[in-house]
Amino acid sequence: MQVRPISDSQEKFKTRAQNAREDYKRGVTNAGPRWLEAAAASGEAWRGGVQEAVTSGRFEKGVRAAGPQKYQDRASQLGPERFATGVAMGAPEWGKNFAPFQQALAAENLGTRGMRGSDSNAQRSLQVMRLMRRVRNERLGG
């Protein structure tokens, strides 16, 4: 079978993806109900696939195959822009999701702060940890 050189295929892949932004946008616009139905129905397949990956150690194998340099390169080249954009776009959702924790913290009486490293401060930390865990479990229904 005759195939084009990998460099040609890479270039086509890159160019097509860059030109497909509007196709992508049209495809995902109003796709939420279809996504929800399909994703919710695929729970068993997801669990099976994840369990198979766990059993065969695919995560570790993938990490080792990629190596530290790929991680560093991708994180430093792609990460800063994506991080800033993602945080900016996610801020309203973060605020909505953090609000119950903020309200619980505001209503909690931690008592007087002790001196640095004191047992009373350790108790305050424990109190906050338990509060956050309780709020999280209430939100998750468990």
Compact summary:
This protein is mainly α. 83% of the residues lie in helices and 0% in strands.
Describe this structure in words.
- By secondary structure, this protein is mostly helical.
- The protein has helices at 6-19, 21-28, 32-41, 43-56, 58-107, 119-140.
- α5 crosses α6 (119-140).
- The protein is elongated, with a radius of gyration of 24 Å.
- The termini are far apart.
- It is built from 6 helices and no strands.
Task: Give the helices and strands, then pairings.
Layout: H1 6-19, H2 21-28, H3 32-41, H4 43-56, H5 58-107, H6 119-140
Helix pairs in contact: 5-6
Into which percent range does the helicity of residues fall? over 70%
The overall average pLDDT, rounded, is 94
Terminus-to-terminus distance: 57 Å
Percent of residues in β-strands: under 5%
- Parts with pLDDT < 50 across at least 5 consecutive residues: none
Strand tally, please? Answer: 0
Give the radius of gyration.
24 Å
Shape: elongated
Structural class of the secondary elements? mainly alpha
What kind of sheet is the major sheet?
A: none
Run of helices and strands:
HHHHHH
How many helices in DSSP terms?
6
Quickly list its features:
single chain, 142 residues, mainly alpha, 6 helices, 83% helix, 0% strand
